[in-house]
Structure formats: structure tokens, C-alpha cells
Amino acid sequence: MRYVVGYGPRQRGVDGVNVAATLARSSGATLDLVSVLPSDAPTFQRYSPDQAFNAELDEQAREWLRDGLSRVPDDVTADSVVQRADSITQGLLDAATDSDRGEAALIVVGTYHRVRSGRFGLGSLADALLHASPVPVALAPAQYQAQPGVSRITCAVGLRPGNEALFDNAVRLAGEWRVPLRLMSLVALDEDATSDGSDWVRAAEEHAAALVDSAAQRLPVECSVSSIIGRGESLEDAVEGVEFADSEVALVGSSRLAAPRRLFLGRSATKILRALPVPLIVWPRD
């Protein structure tokens, strides 16, 4: 199993490495740190300026990757790859779907760094991946520090059908990583101005209880299963009312608008992302 980690010279590259290392310590995955350069400029002259420029770019990317590898903990195995592509997004997607190396289990990237510590800011790279990737994408909050491993998985579950793949994979990961699973339902009062939210809370509690029973039957005894209902005036408020440990990760599903095996970050997931203080994995639809 391998994770593709987008790496560059900015802090978000370091954040991505730290999240990938934390996940790898639980999963046993190896890391491929990838720096993407523009496609080779066409030239037919051995000593042309194009060739010299490409060679300089290549050496710069390898220097970045040496820095990235130095930040990987000793107990995590990592390699480096210089990928040529028309865009950074395409380069990471190509690296993740490389038939010779096998499809990656995750693409891991940092997010826009000009936000307060522990929060997400979607830049153009993360946004593009979240609307195109065929594999799950893990996002790192700003200034994320590597943890000894994942201590718990929190999976966002809703009342609407269509997220069975997310739930199944959350259960699978909890079993493989031997960590507790928490199922999180969110109730935003601003989505129903005619109600005080009590009916929605009751429905969410009943739905979560049924999922807890289902997950508990499929997981070993040491992997506890629980549920929590976040409630607030908005989805952001509901998320902020839920406590998270620094060493846990959250899972959300792709929008129902997504094509099969493609990500598409929907409106609700975007709101959840803005308020989360922990790494987020976005899972494609089947």
C-alpha cells in the first residue's frame, strides 16, 4: 500500500508529509513524495536553452524532495518521485494511478497556508483534486504536527442514502488500523427554520444508533464504536461543538453529484471542512 504525497517548498508540503506519516504509522503504507514539474519543453538541440532550463528545474525539484524526505519519521518508509505533467493536479493523479507502481490508496496534500493554525484553506490544487480524483484525498490542516498514529476515526454520516461506501470503508479502516470508530451526525438549525431541530436530532440519533450496531458486529472487540450528534445554528457551528483529539482523522463522502469513482466535494462537506481541526479524508462514490 502506498500514499502519494504532493510536496513543494512551502509549509503546506510539510503539513502533507506530517499527515501522511501519521496515517502511515497506523496503516503501514509507504509514502511516495511527488514534486510535479511542467512537461518537458520540446527541443531537438542537445545544448539548447530548453534542455538547460529543464535540467535546472529537475535539480530544484530533487532538492525539494530531499528536504521532504528528511522530514519523514524514521519509522515510515518513503521514496521520492519527480513527475512531469501539464499541471500539478494532473501530475499527482498520474502518480496515484501509475500502473507500474499500482494505484495509490490515498493522495495527501496540504491546504492553503494563510489560515490560522489547525484550519483548512482550500487552494486551487486541493480544490481541483477534490473534483477529479479517483482515489481518496487526505487534506492536512495548517501547521499540522505528525502524531504517533491515528487514535480514532470520526466518520460523518447523514440521513440521506448514498454514502454506504463511506461507511463501509470507515469500518474497514477502523478494523485494519485497530482504532475506535466514531459516527458523527450533524444537525444545522438554519436548514429548517420551521423547527427547533428536535425532530432532526431524534432522527439522527436513531440512524446513528443503527449504524453503531452494524459497525460493532463487523469490528473486533478492541475497536469500540460510538456516535455523537453535533448541533448548531449552522453546519460549521455543529462541527465546532464536537471535540476532536489532535491524533484523530475525519472522513466525509463525496457529493451525490459525483461520477462513479470520482470525487466531487459538495456544499455540506465544504462547510464541514471549514470548521474541522483535524485531517480530513474525502472518499469517492462507488
Write the CATH fold name of the largest domain. Rossmann fold
Distance between the termini: 20 Å
Overall geometry:
elongated
Taking all Cα atoms into account, the compactness measure Rg is 20 Å
Helix content: 25-40%
Low-confidence stretches: 256-262
Helix and strand run: EHEHEHEHEEHEHEHEHE
Number of helices: 8
How are strands sequenced across the largest beta sheet? 3-2-1-4-5-10-9-6-7-8
- Based on the coordinates given, report the CATH architecture of the largest domain: 3-Layer(aba) Sandwich
Overall strand count: 10
For the sheet with most strands, the description reads: 10 strands, mixed
Strand content: 15-25%
Structural class: alpha/beta
Count of structural domains: 2
Domain UspA: 15-140, 151-282
Family: Belongs to the universal stress protein A family.
Organism: Mycolicibacterium obuense
Protein name: Universal stress protein family protein
Keywords, separated by commas or semicolons:
286 residues; alpha/beta; Rossmann fold; 2 domains; ten-stranded mixed β-sheet; 8 helices; 10 strands
Please give a structural write-up.
By secondary structure, the protein is an alpha/beta fold. It folds into 2 domains: 2-140, Rossmann fold, CATH 3.40.50.620; 152-278, HUPs (Rossmann fold), CATH 3.40.50.620. 36% of the residues lie in helices and 22% in strands. It contains 8 helices and 10 strands. The protein has helices at 11-27, 49-70, 88-96, 124-129, 164-177, 198-218, 235-240, 267-275; strands spanning 2-6, 30-38, 78-85, 106-110, 137-140, 152-156, 181-188, 225-232, 248-253, 280-283. Strands 3-2-1-4-5-10-9-6-7-8 form a 10-stranded mixed beta sheet, sandwiched between helices. Strand 1, helix 1 (11-27) and strand 2 form a beta-alpha-beta unit. The radius of gyration is 20 Å and the shape is elongated. The two termini are 20 Å apart. The model is unreliable at 256-262 (pLDDT under 50).
